[in-house]
Amino acid sequence: MANYIFHPALSRGHVQHGWLNTYHTFSFAQYYNPERIHFGALRVLNDDTVDGSQGFGMHPHDNMEIITIPLEGALKHQDSMGNAAIISAGEIQVMSAGTGIYHSEYNANADIPVKLLQIWVFPNQKNVTPRYDQIAIKTHFLRNQLQQIVSPSPSDAGVWIHQEAWFHLGTFDRDQSVPYTVQKEGNGIYAFVISGKALIDGQVLEARDGLGIWETSQIQIQTLETDTYLLLMDVPMIF
Q1: Which CATH architecture has domain 12-138?
Q2: pLDDT digit string (tens) for 82-122?
Q3: SS3 of 43, please?
Q4: pLDDT tens, position by position, 52-82
Q5: How far apart are CA 179 and CA 170, in angstroms?
Q6: Of 116, 96, 120, nearest to 106 (Cα)?
Q7: Do domains 12-138 and 141-236 have the same CATH topology?
Q8: Residue 11: helix, strand or coil by DSSP?
Q9: CA-CA distance, 239 to 21, in Å (whole number)?
């Protein structure tokens, strides 16, 4: 029998730094909730809005898989590996921090905010060589279908990470019935509604609500509003 944990949007940690308005699904920085440390290998799900020309200066990471999904605007990235790039809505960025990296992230525009999701996943290998990649995903999107954007394999669609995890995005019309099958036995699914409204395995989720589901092989999604935008994260529960 499946297990569930529901995280309403308003239950998330919230910090307003002036230039940064951020919501934390799991414990992060000043927000600590001992019951919300992680969901399996999913460690961080941050929902950030950064003012024009503002951002995060150079700071370190190690032994973490970091996925960034801009939702609006553009983000300027630089790192200690020599990468300098702009990542915009419709693209996805991944970094394997491995043995250690430094990077900075700034709003690439002075006059509009950038909105993004930043997601951290515990790796299945420690101290790997750090790596960076980004790809455009918007050109491959088909409405009313889930699009794979993250996997463990460099030969699969999307970017790859050092973990047996699969992420999917999709934009749907109202009244779409969408089954999803867990990619690997023992994995769980964390569903996050970016916008719109959906019924997932009997639980109604509105914008920025999250639902963790484990000990199941398949879930059923019913969209309740047009332009419902969903993110599914299929991750190991034991790692």
Answers
A1: Sandwich (2.60)
A2: 999 999 999 999 999 999 999 999 999 999 999 999 999 99
A3: strand
A4: 999 999 999 999 999 999 999 999 999 999 9
A5: 12
A6: 116
A7: yes
A8: helix
A9: 32
Q: Which CATH number fits domain 141-236: 3.40.50.1010, 2.60.120.10, 3.40.50.300, 3.30.420.40?
A: 2.60.120.10
The mean pLDDT of 169-195, rounded to a whole number, is 97
Helix (H) or strand (E) holding 149: strand 147-151
Tokens 């279908």 locate to 145
Distances (CA, A) of 196 to 6, 24, 213: 17, 20, 20
- Contact between 64 and 121 under an 8 Å Cβ cutoff? The reply is yes
The one-letter code for the residue type at 6 is F
Domain ranges of the chain: 12-138, 141-236
Could you tell me the two tokens for 200?
Answer: 């997932």
